Amino acid sequence: MTLRRFNFTGRKRIPHRNAVITVLDEPSDGLRFSVLLDFEDSDLPDEARVVVEVFREMWLERVDAGSVKDVASEERELGPVAVPSELKGAVKYKIKVVDPRDGRLLAASTPITLIDGDTGRSILPVCEMTDAESDHLVWKLELDSETSDGPILYVTRPPGKQEVRSSYFQALVFPEVLRRVLTFIAEEDRHFDYDTDEWQHAWITFAARFAGGPGADTRGWIDDAVSAFAQHLELAAKYRAWFDERAG
Fold first, then answer.
1. Lowest mean pLDDT among 65-79, 116-130, 180-194, 216-230
2. Can you tell me the distance from the alpha carbon of 109 to that of 42, in angstroms, rounded to the nearest whole number?
3. pLDDT tens-digit profile of 1-26?
4. Three-class secondary structure of residue 167 per DSSP
């Protein structure tokens, strides 16, 4: 794939809070998602083109979302994008605004890792690890405040990433992942708000869907968010159903 060169001179930054991307479906024909952007007070020209980059590591695909005027006025559904099988559920997104006359980059976001808006299920990147890398663990969560990548969930293979979709894995692992991520953010006071454009904002916003915004008692809020998240996905019931099926 030939990548077009961009001129970064004088570009604006698109805050994550101004970009809403929701995964709609990922059937056999490719990834489908919607995008809704807030360009108010951005001074970007109406005719500028909005490009959504879907990427992971060395793989990248660009999707033309339309003009600034079109995208700012309504939510737009995009796709399908043919994502390599090994990257499904682990891609990231960037929003770029390009001058159609000369390809100059007018504005861009930092990488966006998504939360599935329809199911409330985290789609944090999932990667496989070998036995030698696992330290005898079935799964590990990588958290690093020095990168913009956000949390990464590593699982052993076999069974690999398909195990993440099972009800018992989600019931046993996902609440703990949410608790660890929120606790990690809470220990970095500078990130525990809605104003950051980094990955922390996406996780706080996600948790707030279940427990409201964080207050003075952050530990209590984390407990409430994790419990409400598990209740929303009915994880305990799904785990019991999985256990009963195997016992029967």
1. 116-130
2. 13
3. 333 333 334 568 887 667 777 777 65
4. helix
Taking the alpha carbons at both ends of the chain, their separation in whole angstroms is 52
Summarised one tens digit per residue, pLDDT across range 57-114 is: 778 899 999 999 888 767 788 888 888 877 766 678 888 999 989 888 998 887 776 5
Residues 6+ apart with CB under 8 A from 33: 21, 22, 23, 24, 77, 78, 79
- Which tokens go with 88? 């499904």
Residue 52: phi and psi, rounded to 5, are -105, 120
Do residues 34 and 71 touch, judged by C-beta distance below 8 A? no
Residue 231, token pair as written in the block: 């209740």
Determine the Cα–Cα distance for residues 218 and 36; give it in Å rounded to an integer. Answer: 30
| Three-state DSSP class for residue 162 | helix
**Residue in 137, 90, 141 with CA at minimum distance from that of residue 116:** 90
- Assigned token pair, 153: 């969930």
CB 41 within 8 A of CB 98: no
Catalogue all structural domains in the chain, each as residue range(s) with its CATH number. Answer: 12-108 (2.60.40), 126-247 (no CATH)
Q: Could you tell me where the DSSP H helices lie in the chain?
A: 68-73, 131-134, 167-186, 199-211, 218-232, 235-247
| Spatial separation of the C-alpha atoms in residues 223 and 56, rounded to whole Å | 32
159: preceding bond cis by omega (within 30 degrees): yes
Average pLDDT of 169-182?
92
Secondary structure of residue 107 in the 3-state scheme? strand
